Amino acid sequence: MPGIDESLLEAMRLPGARGASLVDWISGLALGAVGEAPGGDWEATAAETAELARHVAESGSLSAGGSAGDPEAAPGPGKAPEVEDLIATTADAYHLLRFVSTPFDSTVFLHLWLARHDGNLALARIRLAEMAERLVLG
Amino acid sequence: MTGAATGATTTWRAHETMSAALGTLAAQGATGALSGERGIVYLSAGRVVHVESAFTPDLGALLTRSGAVPADGWWDAVDRGGAQHRVGRRLVDSGRLAAGALEVCHLGALFDAAYFVLAHDTRARRFRPGAAHWLGAVRSVPVDTVVRESGRRRSLLDRIWPDSAIDTVPLSRVPGAGTTDLPARRVRTLTQVDGVRTAAQIASALACRTYHTLVELRRLAAAGLVTAAATAAPSAAPPPSAAPPPAGVPDPVGTVWDDPDTALLRRLRDALEAL
């Protein structure tokens, strides 16, 4: 069963992978990171991407059909927001953020940085979703 | 239980604060348990392997109260693995929890407790060389990462809403304030605000990490939905002195744990509560 480091190393085997991390989107802490940090500093990257992920996770529009305002329907501790992943593209890179759903209180996502030249975004999205599930379910 | 084989308890005099003491112990590559006013930091070879604080739910509370691990499965792992300091390993080997899930929950609990131990850097009390936590090795974190993260977390709270009283006193909902369009996590937190409970008690009721509950409560305060309870009984909470977050929190378990044998006492408490 993979731990955090094994999961990140597995993500790094995807074509074009440059860096991968597991980040808490409320505190902005990187729980683990391998490879190169976008911008050179994992702590800064984690804090910035966490703020982005939080805005999306808490967005009433992007998680439309969700349970905002209804405590009965609110998900339990650690349930991932209804948004599954975020994708940002630049001229030379893809950034893929995948929310991880856990049965206990946690607020984490996987962040994979891919070189656009040899990265395959569709493949990476499918594989990262599988890795997120294996990380917490074994 | 706490691996005291290497003996003597050291009363800490050389260093004023927890972070200074931790820095020295890290440089020495020390192994053992450093107790402070707000919790205990466990080191192995100079790295932080676990932190406990009475102001935060421990790993067992996070896992069992959320339903991630059934209570009997947790106790079975504690009973079978506790004496060998292999409870975490036992949970994974018995198939009750994925290795990644254990690491994520453990780091969540570690940094949560560390925030309360370090954010207002109080005096170190004593160091017990060789003491190990019954959970066993899960992941270790450099001391400077833990210290830096705790400081960063404190400034994050102040950026959201610069009123540290929210962290410590009983909280009330503001009557008539609309609560539509709130994210689900914030709604769950708001429903626990009842004019009596403090942030730490709300976190415990939700089986959530306390720091993450503080973030939601400060955002609710910033939105004008939550305020310090007007009827806060002075006897229940000492006046929030220059306000270290947990200073005025009525201790959720009734006493301040300062001994590595906390684990045993917590188990007893949890078992009694479960009756």
Protein topology:
The complex is a heterodimer of chains A (138) and B (275).
Chain A: H1 4-12, E1 17-24, E2 30-35, H2 42-57, E3 85-89, E4 93-100, E5 108-115, H3 121-137
Antiparallel strand pairs in A: 1-2, 1-5, 3-4, 4-5
Chain B: E1 10-11, H1 18-28, E2 32-36, E3 40-44, E4 47-52, H2 59-65, H3 71-81, H4 87-93, H5 99-118, E5 124-129, E6 141-142, H6 143-160, E7 171-173, H7 184-190, H8 199-206, H9 210-222, E8 226-228, H10 262-274
Antiparallel strand pairs in B: 1-5, 2-3, 2-5, 3-4, 4-6, 7-8
Helix pairs in contact in B: 3-4, 5-6, 6-9, 7-9, 8-9
Give an account of the 3D structure.
The complex is a heterodimer of chains A (138) and B (275). By secondary structure, chain A is α+β, with helices and mostly antiparallel strands. Chain A has a single domain, classed as Dynein light chain 2a, cytoplasmic (Beta-Lactamase, 2-Layer Sandwich), CATH 3.30.450. Mean pLDDT of chain A is 89; it is low at 66-73. In chain A, helix 1 (4-12) runs antiparallel to helix 3. Chain A has helices at 4-12, 42-57, 121-137; strands at residues 17-24, 30-35, 85-89, 93-100, 108-115. With 275 residues, chain B is an alpha+beta fold. Chain B folds into two domains: 4-156 and 254-274, no CATH class; 158-228. Chain B is built from ten helices and eight strands. In chain B, the strands form two sheets. Chain B has a six-stranded antiparallel beta sheet with strand order 1-5-2-3-4-6. In chain B, helix 3 (71-81) packs across helix 4 (87-93), helix 5 (99-118) packs across helix 6 (143-160) and helix 6 (143-160) runs parallel beside helix 9 (210-222). Residues 1-7 and 234-260 of chain B have low confidence and may be disordered. Chains A and B meet through helix 1, helix 2 and helix 3 of A and helix 5, helix 6, helix 7 and helix 9 of B.
